[in-house]
Structure formats: C-alpha cells, structure tokens
Amino acid sequence: xxRFRSVLKxxxxxxTPQRIAVHEAMLALEHATxxxxxxxxxxxxxxxxxxxxxxxxxxxxxSIGLYRRVPSIGNKTLYDISTFPHIxxxxxxxxxxxxxxxxxxxxxxxxxxxxxxxxxxxxxxxEVQLICHxxxxxxxxxx
Length: 143
Known about the structure:
By secondary structure, this protein is of the alpha+beta class. It folds into two domains: about 1-80, Arc Repressor Mutant, subunit A; about 85-135, Dna Ligase, domain 1, CATH 3.30.1490. The protein contains five helices and six strands.
C-alpha cells in the first residue's frame, strides 16, 4: 500500500478512501470490471462509492500505469493488476481470468510481429488470451 500511495503522490493524486478501497479490491480480485470492484467494496463495507466512480478511478489508475486495461469478452472493460507482458487464460465456465507467465512465449510472439507486422496496421500492444474451459480430471488429479 505504501508503493501505491507513493505512486499516487508522484502523479499528483491524493490517496482518497475511494482510491484505497478500489486498490484493495483490485489486489484481492486481480482481474475485475468496475461492477465487480464496486460489489467487492460494498460487500466489505470499505467505502461509499458508485460504479461510475469506480470506473473513473480504475481508468485513472490504468492511465498512470498501475493497472492494465484488458480486452475482454462481453464488451466490459477488464482491469488487471499485472502490468507486465503475460498471457491470460479465460475460463468461460466460471467467467474468470488467470495469468500465465511465460516470457519465452511472449518474446516469441512479439518477435514474430516485429518481423511480420499486419499490413495496414501499427501494433500498439500484444495481448494473448486463451479462451478455455476446465478439462476432465485425470485419475491422478484426485490423489
């Protein structure tokens, strides 16, 4: 939390109770929409806040690099606390995201697109997202 407050201060932003509550929610949730963050805050009784305020705070905090906006399914903006290059695994049955850290794969994808950029486009960012569902458990999973 000290790092969070320090970054806010360095960007000229105050550590308001609402910003603190949003950050605590994001630390707990890791990947979340404004609706999910607002629900978490309300359940915890952390602060009195609207979804619109949460969205504005998430947007501001992602603009200064504390969170990352993630393209997501369903036209809702998803925010991620991990701002380094990584892969997302989306579990469509549970509607949840998990991080897969594989620097070698990310480097390979980035290298490929530097050598073969899509015609007519400039790449702003590369986001790899695997859309999955849980597979069958093997007999060894229950041991």
